[in-house]
Amino acid sequence: MAVPITTLQPQLVQAFQHIITHGQFSAAYVFAGPAGTGKQALATWIAQRLFCQNLQDGAPCGHCPECQRILSGNHPDVLTLATTTQSIKVADVRALKEEMSKSGVEGANRVFIIPDADKMTPGAANSLLKFYEEPVPGMVIILTTAAKNQLLPTILSRAQVINFPQPARSAVMAQLEAGGATKADAALVAHLTADAQAGSELLATGLSTQRERVVQWLSKVVARDPEAFVLVQTQLLPVAKTPVAAKQIVSLIALAYADALNRHYAVTDDLAYGQEPVIGQLAELAARQLTAGLTAALQAQVRLTQNVSFQAAVGALAIQLIS
Ligand SMILES: [Zn+2]
Hints:
- This protein is of the alpha/beta class and 323 residues long.
- The chain is built from 16 helices and 5 strands.
- The chain has 2 domains: 5-163, Rossmann fold (3-Layer(aba) Sandwich), CATH 3.40.50; 205-322, Zinc Finger, Delta Prime, domain 3, CATH 1.20.272.
- Zinc ion is lined by residues 52-54, 60-64, 66-67.
- GO terms for molecular function: 3'-5' exonuclease activity; DNA-directed DNA polymerase activity.
């Protein structure tokens, strides 16, 4: 279930609508932004906009043979560099350039898309650079990246850089709910990621169980029950088996304290845990204690990245929170 790019990035769609209508296309674009912000989808939209045989109010129809071929990756004039390896090498770019040099119909549009362009080796980037300095009329290269800073400055300076804004949390929530998530799950996930796709995967891999365990654990913490320390091993550790899961548990704890601080100050919109009762109890603590709790959780997160074990990091956190 993907949200249409016209909903996800309406301003960017409008901008390109204008650019294409007025023939102001550049030869090279860099689409920069986090995963889930619609970079590839906009590139596809642009290609469809250029080739669609049945434009609807200036927008591609999405159904005609041209639109369909672009969508399925079978359009001869829309090429996406596909690489399964960790880096994009000179040979990959060379193959793409060979395709580019095959002249299509004169003046006709051709679109070349290089996803994850930050994976280009310096050699590959330089090889591409030579080509995009001498653009062929009608040809456009679109590089997408989630790590703009890792592109060569020369690649960036000779392209139009389009920054993709992070979608609003409410939009991410709506996307997740449309995909079948409950309101409570959607709210929590949208606090962990702005990528609805990644969010759905979090839910599929047990986020709800993690939430339950963290809530259970917090009920001991709020009661200053030393059992909180024991539960780290018996309740939290079993759902923190991978580094990603471990990091997530600690994020959930940090979010609980952030929510509690908000509720302490009667800020009730945009809560990760909604009206979860245990967070309400936590919110009755002094603001100073809640801030200290949040800080401690964030420190535990840093310690996880420094190869401290989950048990050690969260065990220490438990002791800090109940003391
Ligand atoms: Zn069409």
